[in-house]
Amino acid sequence: MCARVVMEEVVRKENLEKALKRVVANRGGPGIDGMTVDELKGHLKAQWPDIREKLLAGRYKPQPIKAVDIPKSGGGTRRLGIPTVLDRFIQQALLQVMTPTYDPTFSPHSYGFRPGRNAHQAVQQARVYIKEGYDWVVDIDLEKFFDRVNHDILMSRIARRVMDKRILRLVRLYLQAGVMLNGVVQERYEGTPQGGSLSPLLSNILLDELDKELESRGHKFCRYAHDANIYVKLERAGQRVMDSVERFLAKRLKLRINREKSAVAKPRKRSILGFSFLGSEDWKIRLAPKALKNVKYRIKKLTGRSRGIPLERIIQELSGYLRGWMSYFGLAETSTVFRDLDSWIRRRLRAAVVKQWILSCEARYHGVHRLGASDMDARMFAVSR
Q1: Where are the alpha helices (DSSP H) in the chain?
Q2: I need a labelling partner for 70 at 20 to 30 A (CA). Which of 29, 338, 375, 381 fits?
Q3: What single string gives the DSSP state of each residue in 223-247?
Q4: Model confidence pLDDT, tens digit, residues 190-228
């Protein structure tokens, strides 16, 4: 198994062609060198022989990553690290070689960033546990996980299966790649930057040790990236599990639990991947309150009455967003929430239409009269706020 994770497999033509297609399909912005995804193919045609020789000789050195702060829906920002498109291409080629070695050995309770597994499966499995009577959840959130990963611990776990020193060196260099912020490159001594193709696999390699520990204890749990939900039958048992897992993470992986975001509670009071649960026997999957708040925040931005763009464009942007949103949150089984949300969206759009009419009573009157309102209703609307 280890023999396949070698640099010769990474630079194999078929592997590179697959990696290039994936990087181009994923798009994304340029890194610190300004090279775009559309320019990558031409760059590889001219420079690949030299890059390939450096990779095979173990001399390739990644470029620093570009720091980009993106706003969170709940306020604040999240920092992403954007590698150059060339480094995204090489990371993708590495990922495709490493995944077949690691993924088959990962825990069946791990659902994040794995082929054939997704968040919906984690939510549905959580409901199975709750229906079986494990109706207390130990909701664990790791504090600043991607910023706190210990490089030495992670590399020691990777080295258990990867024997090629060229790959080990390259992975460590990607972990240590400096971050360019305001024109200055800051060195990294811990953490794995969010934004690189390798980061999700590396996080699963590290946290697989937690999965195996929970399995050995016989726990019912679901983990998605750095969020883990463990299901128990009693609150007292949940508190013991929380304390013991906290000690395990600190001692073995040098990671900390975010106590403010973690808790032992009934499932209806916690969320898992944007969903929560409602009921006592059927336990319907519902939209978590925070997810509903976030979608309304985004819709308000898209349908703002002062945007000054045509209604057709507002609807086009809104439709694109809602299609993606529903493809994920359509798993929720509380139809009333969706009906209320639909009604609220229509009211937002009506308000946008009215805003675009000339702000006079006469224009309002004629506007709603053309849409079928009676003379009396049109007059009342025209003079109302």
Answers
A1: 7-10, 13-26, 37-57, 85-102, 119-131, 145-148, 151-158, 165-176, 199-216, 235-248, 289-302, 311-329, 335-356, 361-370, 375-382
A2: 338
A3: EETTEEEEEES-HHHHHHHHHHHHH
A4: 677 777 889 999 999 999 999 999 999 999 999 999 999
Do residues 113 and 146 touch, judged by C-beta distance below 8 A?
Answer: no
The amino acid that residue 360 corresponds to is: S
CA distance linking residue 295 with residue 92, whole number of Å = 32
Give 161-224 as a DSSP string.
Answer: T---HHHHHHHHHHHH--EEETTEEEP-SB---BTBSSHHHHHHHHHHHHHHHHHHTT-EEEEE
CB of 318 within 8 A of CB of 367? no
Q: Give the CA angle between residues 207, 210, 216 to the nearest 5°.
A: 145
Euclidean distance between CA atoms 6 and 169, whole angstroms:
12
By CB atoms closer than 10 A (0-12, 13-18, 19+), residue 168 is middle
Tell me which residue has tokens 């006079």: 360
**120-130 per-residue burial string, b: 16 or more CB within 10 A, e: under 16:** eebbebbbebb
pLDDT digits 0-9 by tens, 302-361: 998 777 788 889 999 999 999 999 999 999 998 999 999 999 999 998 888 777 666 677
Ramachandran sector of residue 287 (left: φ over 0; alpha: ψ -120 to 50; beta: rest): beta
Residue 142 region, left (φ>0) first, then alpha (ψ -120 to 50), else beta? beta
